[in-house]
């Protein structure tokens, strides 16, 4: 069944986003105000895009990993490693370009490591990526030698705080990455392969899909996305903080993917919806901040949203829905 | 030797070798003082690891334990310092709240059929958030009961002492081991982790067991929070951040299979001690930075995961068979 393109945009995620934004507007009337200043846009809405970009970027990689019935817990630690590499290299006198390329390569390598554990050693993804989640922050501290490496290279800082056509650079990078990966998986057969491996890996292998190679590439992509996010976060604060960079962001990224409707049991996935999930999370954070609630409520609200989604997605709720529809049908046709 | 005991033996042997090497380098490490401190410093982690072992054997995971420790610590501190409740009553309230919280998570996991990973993640946010809403600051606890507890210890030869909380951890491990290996509940947990469908067909009460496992895990996390509060004499909403990872690490290093259905309570004890050994070694060395702890524990995790893989794939020649089929 093909629906009208405009109708396809209208789904649970976009409605939820609109709801959160309207609620923010209700709590803080200036929420939609956008000002043009110093060649760029300013406003709460732009702030949501800017602050939500790192999680959105992580969510792009995480969606593809979760679609293969996996999960990548190491993205926060990989962010710290990539930020540490970029900052240390810039401080050591390398150009920003070299630093970024090496940091991206290191992040991708971390992803390949995860992929090798999952694909070749057949280790459960949660556990395989747990290794790097625990050790990664230690590695990052090894690179920065335990201190927060600060830098002033204008090109590297531009990655985090610059603007492109008036929009924050971080949001632009997230958008480009989202479009590129979506096109790569949806305009080729790769997306189908990913879903096949996620639903039943051995069946997919017997059908001729090189599932090992695919899994390694998927984790490599997640590592790459984590490195991009790590560079942006480091550039934003002009320093690499091995302890706090990307801390708990893996959980936000997983949450964004789940809000985006991707099944944790593999198979069905949508990258743009996961990015919208990331924006919903950030809109809630910003909403709580601008409306004057104490930031401690943030976690409770987040937990409430997860519980709501879980209840709505659960088989019992689906059955109740069918049941009530049937009952309604019976009553109208006696 | 029984094949199923191999991972446990491997962990124990690695601990003995590692401890032997450390003693060879720093002879002072072989003293009852160091061993006593192992128990005291890791008491809250050990108690948490017992609960985590049950959850992992049942085929799930509990990410909320660190947050529950933080929440119980804050709750106890608030009750004792602000409302001048006697610590023992505060402990009881905190344990009841923690157990109810775990039971709720268990219900959500069973009745909503959601992966435990996501439910306990929500639980983690909720407990951490609730603790932060109660207070933002560290609340000190000054009560004569706390000083009384710290005077309770068993003296050992050589100046070492088993403190009250260290002894409590040992007791929890013993009770946990009996519960897992010698009771009906224990065999239900193993059956559930082995294969939930077969378990329910065999008549294992799946709902009750699932809910009880998460209740137990949260109860023990609450107990760990009480121990943490006795250990630090304060309640802080950001206390014990990341302890869930240390606990999962200890359980895996202890030879418990993360897919469920297989594991030992005693293994988790060795896992906790091994993590304590790494930390103590780094303190003794003095020149190594604390971040080496994370790297070494990461490497240990990797080692044991690969080890489990090798042991279990040698007993189940499934993959080779598949490859052979392909070539034919």
TrEMBL record, chain A:
Protein source organism: Hoeflea marina
This protein's GO CC annotations: plasma membrane
Name of the protein in question: Monosaccharide ABC transporter membrane protein (CUT2 family)
Cited InterPro entries: ABC_transp_permease
An annotated Gene Ontology molecular function: transmembrane transporter activity
Domain of life: Bacteria
Pfam family, one: BPD_transp_2
Transmembrane segments: 9-28, 48-66, 73-91, 97-119, 126-144, 164-185, 214-235, 247-266, 273-293, 299-323
Subcellular location: Cell membrane
TrEMBL record, chain B:
Subcellular location: Cell membrane
Keywords: Cell membrane, Membrane, Transmembrane, Transmembrane helix
One GO term describing the cellular component: plasma membrane
One MF term in the entry's GO annotations: transmembrane transporter activity
Transmembrane segments: 34-56, 63-83, 89-109, 116-135, 162-180, 211-231, 238-258, 291-312
Highest taxon, organism lineage: Bacteria
Topological relation to the membrane, as annotated: Multi-pass membrane protein
Protein name, per record: Monosaccharide ABC transporter membrane protein (CUT2 family)
């Amino acid at each position: 069944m093909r629906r009208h393109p405009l109708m396809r945009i209208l789904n649970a995620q976009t409605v939820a986003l609109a709801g959160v934004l309207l609620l923010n507007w209700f709590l803080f009337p200036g929420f939609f105000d956008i000002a043009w200043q110093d060649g760029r846009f300013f406003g709460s809405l732009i702030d949501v895009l800017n602050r939500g970009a790192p999680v959105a970027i992580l969510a792009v990689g995480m969606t593809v990993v979760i679609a293969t019935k996996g999960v990548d817990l190491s993205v926060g630690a990989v962010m710290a490693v990539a930020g540490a590499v970029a900052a240390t290299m810039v401080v050591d006198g390398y150009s920003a370009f070299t630093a970024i390329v090496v940091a991206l390569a290191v992040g991708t390598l971390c992803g390949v490591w995860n992929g090798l554990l999952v694909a070749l050693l057949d280790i459960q993804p949660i556990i395989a990526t747990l290794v790097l989640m625990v050790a990664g922050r230690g590695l990052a501290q090894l690179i920065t030698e335990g201190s927060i490496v600060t830098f002033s290279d204008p090109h590297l800082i531009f990655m985090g705080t610059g603007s492109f056509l008036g929009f924050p650079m971080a949001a632009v990078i997230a958008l480009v990455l989202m479009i590129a990966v979506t096109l790569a998986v949806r305009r080729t057969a790769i997306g189908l392969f990913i879903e096949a491996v996620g639903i039943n890996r051995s069946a997919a292998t017997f059908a001729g899909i090189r599932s090992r190679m695919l899994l390694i590439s998927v984790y490599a992509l997640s590592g790459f996305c984590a490195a991009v996010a790590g560079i942006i976060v480091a550039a934003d604060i002009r320093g690499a903080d091995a302890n706090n960079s990307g801390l708990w962001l893996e959980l936000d990224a997983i949450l964004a993917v789940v809000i985006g409707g991707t099944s944790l049991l593999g198979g069905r996935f949508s990258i743009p919806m996961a990015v919208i999930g990331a924006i919903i999370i950030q809109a809630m954070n910003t909403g709580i901040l601008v409306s004057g609630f104490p930031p401690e409520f943030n976690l409770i609200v987040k937990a409430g949203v997860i519980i709501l989604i879980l209840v709505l997605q659960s088989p019992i709720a689906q059955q109740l829905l069918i049941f009530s529809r049937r009952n309604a049908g019976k009553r109208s046709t006696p | 030797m029984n094949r199923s005991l191999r991972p446990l033996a491997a962990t124990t042997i690695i601990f003995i070798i590692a401890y032997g090497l450390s003693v060879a380098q720093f002879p002072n490490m072989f003293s009852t003082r160091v061993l006593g401190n192992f128990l005291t410093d890791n008491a809250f982690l050990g108690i948490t690891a017992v609960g985590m072992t049950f959850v992992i054997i049942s085929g799930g995971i509990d990410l909320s334990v660190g947050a529950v420790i933080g929440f119980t610590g804050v709750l106890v501190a608030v009750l004792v310092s602000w409302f001048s409740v006697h610590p023992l009553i505060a402990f009881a309230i905190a344990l009841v709240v923690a157990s109810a919280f775990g039971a709720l998570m268990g219900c959500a996991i069973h009745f909503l059929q959601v992966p435990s990973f996501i439910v306990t993640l929500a639980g983690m946010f909720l407990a951490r958030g609730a603790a932060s809403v109660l207070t933002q600051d560290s609340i000190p606890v000054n009560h004569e009961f706390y000083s009384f507890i710290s005077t309770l210890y068993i003296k050992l030869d050589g100046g070492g002492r088993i403190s009250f909380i260290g002894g409590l951890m040992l007791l929890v491990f013993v009770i946990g081991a009996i519960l897992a290996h010698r009771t009906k509940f224990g065999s239900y947990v193993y059956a559930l982790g082995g294969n939930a469908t077969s378990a329910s067909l065999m008549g294992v009460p799946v709902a009750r067991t699932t809910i009880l496992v998460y209740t137990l895990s949260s109860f023990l996390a609450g107990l760990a929070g009480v121990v943490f509060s006795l250990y630090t004499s304060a309640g802080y909403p950001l206390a014990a951040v990341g302890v869930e990872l240390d606990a999962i690490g200890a359980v895996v290093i202890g030879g418990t299979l993360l897919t469920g259905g297989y594991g030992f309570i005693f293994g988790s004890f060795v896992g906790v001690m091994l993590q304590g050994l790494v930390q103590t070694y780094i303190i003794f060395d003095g020149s190594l930075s604390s971040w080496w702890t994370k790297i070494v524990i990461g490497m240990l995790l990797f080692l044991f995961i690969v080890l489990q893989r090798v042991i279990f794939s040698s007993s189940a020649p499934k993959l080779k068979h598949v490859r052979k089929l392909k070539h034919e």
